[in-house]
């Protein structure tokens, strides 16, 4: 649970989150519009894959990054 929210997601919650996240993260560099247009079957497959991975602690840096940000700046 301390490594990310997906451990608490159901398949339905995951799909809903992907479909809503673009509006929740305006200005994000992540191409959320592309993901939210995926079929439910594709998103279900991604969910199953992500849930199959072992949890890991990994610092990903700031949630929002200025253009040109590099990992050295964290």
Radius of gyration from CA coordinates: 14 Å
Order of helices and strands: HHH
- Name the overall outline: globular
Report mean pLDDT, rounded to a whole number.
79
Structural class: mainly alpha
Please tally the helical runs, counting DSSP H or I stretches of 4 or more residues.
Answer: 3
- The number of E-state strands comes to 0
Helix content: 40-55%
Q: Largest sheet, described in full?
A: none
Short account of what is shown:
By secondary structure, this protein is mainly α.
Describe the structure.
The protein has 74 residues and is an all-alpha fold. The protein is 43% helix and 0% strand. The protein is built from three helices and no strands. α1 (11-24) packs across α3.
Element layout with pairings:
Blueprint: H1 11-24, H2 32-36, H3 40-52
Helix pairs in contact: 1-3
Tag the structure with descriptive keywords.
mainly alpha, about 70 residues
């Amino acid at each position: 649970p301390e490594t990310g929210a997906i451990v608490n997601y159901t398949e339905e919650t995951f799909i809903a989150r992907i479909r809503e996240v673009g509006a929740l993260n305006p200005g994000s560099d992540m191409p959320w519009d592309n993901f939210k247009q995926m079929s439910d079957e594709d998103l279900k497959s991604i969910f199953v894959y992500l849930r199959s991975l072992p949890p890991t602690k990994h610092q990903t840096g700031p949630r929002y990054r200025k253009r040109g940000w590099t990992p050295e700046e964290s």
